[in-house]
Design brief:
By secondary structure, the protein is α/β, with parallel strands linked by helices. It has 2 helices and 12 strands; from the N terminus they run βββββββββββααβ.
Amino acid sequence: MIGPHVFCYAGTHNYGSSDLNAVPFDDRYIDAPVIIEENVWIAGNVSIAPGTHIGKGAVIGMGCTVAGEIPPYAVVVGDKAHVIKYRDAQRYEELAGKGRVYGDVFAGKGFTFVKKTDLR
């Protein structure tokens, strides 16, 4: 059961690998499938992040941002926005200082789809 205005993203931009080649992200798009098991109820206005796994029988409350592992039969509510890690500031500043900004480097060229394990 899926309510209205649910956004489910199964991939993300490469923004944090050690071989990042532009900022804020480069031309590689990381495949990160979402798994939703059986009999899950997802209410309206929910955003599901790349790589999320929602266990069977779970209930996702209205307006949630869901990321990571949701155990079977869990009832989830609320906004999960919080710092989970930091980008490599040195690499970011190095690329920005060289003018390696996404729009200037890759505009109009599209993305290369990769698995997260293919990045350094």
